Amino acid sequence: MKVYHLIYEPSYRSAVFHHWTECNLGCKGCFCKAEKLDFGLFPDALERLKDRPPETAPERFIESAEEALGILSGYPVERAVFIGTEPTLDPDLPALAKALHRKYGSYNILLTNGVKQCDLSDMDEIIFSLKAVTDDIYKAYTGRSNEKTLENFKKVHASGKKLQAECLLIPGLIEADEVEKIAVFIAKADKDITLRIDGYFPIPGCPWRGASTEEVAEAAKRALKHLSKVNYLTADLPRQGETPVRLFG
């Protein structure tokens, strides 16, 4: 199994599994390259990122679903969240999701770039990171075409799974007009699919400045012309809930 980091969020009774895989995208602003631990563990994660050297691959992993359940022993789990470089590339992800369903009846949430589909039988909600719908912009940021991601988004929606989408607002690359195009693409499937817009924060070695709250709010306003619900997150918004508990990694 490729889980290298596990935290527990008491306020939400959530177990958050971080997977480390050889990602099938080469996103230039990937935060895992700068910080592989959960940002919620640190009071000022952005300050921590300044002048940090690139992260190296983790050396320790949780070996099985059984070990993961043992680590969680004593914690009430209502939600399980699977994130990381790309969770769908972990061959043991479906077994882990099934084990959590069986033991806790947890609400399982997968965050994915959507390039690869895996067995989603024990996933209750899928959050697609769409990044961009304009292929040239997507390629400039990730190094490959967005064809599979957009195709798989449509397939997951057609399957009846609960679906959300997220994207980054990156000044100088993925701007408000591109976010609006993402909203239009989503609305063609279902205008009630929620979109979350994350304001980009500076990653060492990347050329872009951070997105301001005003810029992200404006992008959200434009997306709301096409979708029923749009949320956004920026670096200066206060964290909600208690500090997570670090259980592994």
UniProtKB/TrEMBL annotation:
This entry's Gene Ontology molecular function terms read: 4 iron, 4 sulfur cluster binding; catalytic activity; metal ion binding
Which keywords belong to this entry?
A: 4Fe-4S, Iron, Iron-sulfur, Metal-binding, S-adenosyl-L-methionine
Give the protein's cofactors. Answer: [4Fe-4S] cluster
- Which Gene3D superfamilies does the UniProt record give? Aldolase class I
* Domain Radical SAM core, first and last residues per copy: 7-236
State one Pfam family annotation: Radical_SAM
Q: Say yes or no: keyword Iron-sulfur present.
A: yes
Know the name of this protein? Radical SAM domain protein
User: Per the UniProt entry, what species is this protein from, by scientific name?
Assistant: Dehalococcoides mccartyi (strain VS)
